[in-house]
Design brief:
Blueprint (H helix, E strand, L loop, with lengths): L1 H17 L6 E10 L11 E4 L12 E4 L10 E10 L2 E4 L6 E4 H7 L4 H5 L13 E4 L4 E4 L8 E10 L5 E13 L3 H8 L1
Antiparallel strand pairs: 1-8, 1-10, 2-3, 3-7, 4-5, 4-6, 4-9, 9-10
């Protein structure tokens, strides 16, 4: 009978003992660029300034929206996801080629938008007002599960107007790693 009362106490001690050595999964934003896909940059909808330094409230990590986006404009966003395999970026077909209306993407997406909101100011619905938005974080940590599979990822988002013409694009290079592998994994991303 004493063992019955002792078991929860022992389990608490065992869990407490192992908790400090748990490894956290870290998700890093290594690089972000905008509009590399455009031939004509004279009519930009969005621009992005990002460096890898730790973002501070008064830092120069931000993105700017030059035109308000409304539901009636029928602006869609298309994603392509690449994983770094050895020295090459390999397209992940299951995570690529999908298009969705931008306003629905902001409102209903449960995979990417919640992650983006941990890094930058992103609205929850349309209209998307023009102006400058802060990128306030460059990494998140989760003790439970990785955000993506471990490794280097390149996510490219293209925004298309109602005529399916690309009006802006953004590319993010990210790394999913554990602390002990960070330096080696980071070097493999470039």
């Amino acid at each position: 009978m004493k063992l019955f009362y002792l078991c929860p106490l022992l389990m608490g001690i065992i869990l407490f003992e192992f908790r400090p050595i748990m490894t956290a999964f870290n998700f890093y934003l290594l690089k972000a660029t905008a509009n590399n896909c455009l031939q004509d940059r004279s009519n930009l909808w969005l621009d992005l300034v990002y460096n890898v330094s730790i973002p501070l409230p008064n830092s120069n990590n931000y993105y700017t929206i030059f035109r308000e986006i409304t539901e009636s404009m029928n602006i869609t966003v298309r994603s392509n996801m690449y994983k770094k395999v050895k020295k090459d970026w390999k397209l992940e077909p299951a995570l690529s080629g999908k298009s969705i209306r931008t306003c629905a993407f902001l409102k209903y997406d449960i995979a990417l938008i919640p992650i983006f909101r941990l890094f930058a100011e992103i609205g929850h619905s349309c209209p998307i007002k023009k102006g400058k938005r802060l990128i306030f974080n460059n990494h998140i940590s989760s003790p439970f599960h990785p955000v993506f599979m471990p490794g280097c990822w390149n996510l490219t988002l293209e925004w298309l107007d109602s005529n399916k013409k690309v009006i802006t694009c953004v590319s993010f290079v990210t790394l999913q790693s554990v602390d002990s592998n960070y330096e080696v994994d980071r070097n493999n991303c470039y």
